[in-house]
Amino acid sequence: AQVVESGGGLVHTGGSLRLSCAASDVSFALYHMSWYRQIPGKARELVASISNDGGNTEYLDSVKGRFSISRDNVKEMIYLQMNSLRPEDTAVYYCNAKFGTSDYWGQGTPVTVSS
User: Fold this and answer.
1) Around Cβ 35, how many Cβ atoms within 10 Å?
2) In whole angstroms, what is the distance from residue 100 CA to residue 105 CA?
3) Could you give the CA distance from residue 88 to residue 65 in angstroms, rounded to a whole number?
4) What span, in angstroms and rounded, lies between the C-alpha atoms of 92 and 59?
5) pLDDT by residue for the chain (115 residues), tens digit each?
6) What pLDDT does residue 26 have?
7) 112, β-bridge pairs
8) What is the Cα–Cα distance from 46 to 49, expressed in whole angstroms?
9) How far apart are CA 59 and CA 34, in angstroms?
10) Could you tell me which of 53, 91, 93 has the C-alpha nearest to residue 70?
11) 3-state secondary structure the chain
């Protein structure tokens, strides 16, 4: 299985980015999908997650109302729409696919928010 993120980049405070994640060689519709982020020297933290059918989502408190996770089970993609970005959102963002004991990570996409 392969999980590949894209869409990271440099943006000014208050700007927006949309991250995408493609999962291949998995039964995508079975997988619980999540976005994590990590700053060097700190633990990876869960930013947002979405159930396999898209019916349930959860968010880190600091991103509620600014970020939105979604999925397209036909295209086998998930997305993270990030609005009103802040410098503290700067991190490498990782996509995670989990089902049972299967647990896959992408290589990460960097997001930098300048003040």
Assistant:
1) 26
2) 15
3) 16
4) 17
5) 899 999 999 999 999 999 999 998 889 999 999 999 999 899 999 999 999 999 999 999 999 999 999 999 999 999 999 999 999 999 999 999 999 999 999 999 999 999 9
6) 82
7) 10
8) 8
9) 10
10) 53
11) CEEEEECCEEEECCCCEEEEEEEECCCHHHCEEEEEEECCCCCCEEEEEECCCCCCEEECHHHCCCEEEEEECCCCEEEEEECCCCHHHCEEEEEEEEECCEEEECCCEEEEEEC
The CA-CA-CA angle for residues 85, 52, 25, to 5°, reads 95
Q: Contact, 67 vs 82, CB < 8 A?
A: yes
How many CB atoms are closer than 10 A to CB 14? Answer: 10
14 phi and psi angles, rounded to 5 deg: 90, -10
- What pLDDT score does 50 carry? 98
Nearest to 46 by CA among 85, 8, 94: 94
